[in-house]
Amino acid sequence: MRKNVFLFIVMAVAFSTISTSAFGQKLGYLNSQEILSKFKEAQDVKKQLEEINKGWENEALNMQREIKEKSDQLEAQRLLLSETKRAEKEQEIQVTYQKLQKFQATKWGPQGDALKEEAKLLQPIQAKIIDAINIVGEKDGFDYIFDTVTANIVYVSKGQVNLTERVIAELEKNAASTSGGSAK
């Protein structure tokens, strides 16, 4: 058992040494969340977004209070109101509730103002971060820099070869030879 573990470790070290020296690639990584949390301009934008969001939350709370007040008022007067007047009050509550739902969807929905505002305010910050990554990558001779948060490559040196077209050509060549063989 010890012999197998030792052999595995020796092979792993040998492989890692061969693979890094054979390709000679310099890799780096970063944590984009940490960058955003420590970059002052990003912190300022976060505070600005929180203030905007707080204003919207207050508007939503006011609408919720209005709905509660109208509902409480209706319950207190229910026995005194005519059927028509009661239906009218219930309709008012329903309209206010729908207004609240529309407001919430407009502000916090998938295409809501909160996401649009965040994208608008963070875009210049992200551009600065990308510029800084490119400068560090070029200056320090990195071939690739990865973001550990998104698992994306955020920098590729200019000297790297894009193999996309060669891979597509190989796939097409293999597809042609496969279809040619099956036609026989």
Would you give an account of this structure?
There is one protein chain. This protein has two domains: 1-30 and 142-178, no CATH class; 40-123. 76% of the residues lie in helices and 7% in strands. It has six helices and three strands. It has helices at 2-23, 32-38, 40-77, 83-108, 113-139, 164-182; strands at 27-30, 144-147, 152-156. The protein has a three-stranded mixed sheet with strand order 1-2-3. A hairpin with a 4-residue loop joins β2 (144-147) and β3 (152-156). The longest helix is centred in the N-terminal third of the chain and has 38 residues, at 40-77.
- Total separate domains: 2
The portion of residues forming beta strands comes to: 5-15%
Distance between the termini: 53 Å
**How do the SSEs run, as a string of H and E?**
HEHHHHEEH
What share of the residues lie within helices? over 70%
State the helix count.
6
Largest sheet: 3 strands, mixed
Report mean pLDDT, rounded to a whole number.
84
Number of strands: 3
Which value, in Å, is the CA radius of gyration? 30 Å
Q: Any idea what the shape is?
A: elongated
Low-confidence stretches: 10-22
Helix- and strand-based class?
mainly alpha
Which strand order does the major sheet show?
Answer: 1-2-3
List the defining traits of the structure above.
3-stranded mixed β-sheet; 184 residues; 7% strand; 6 helices; elongated; mainly alpha
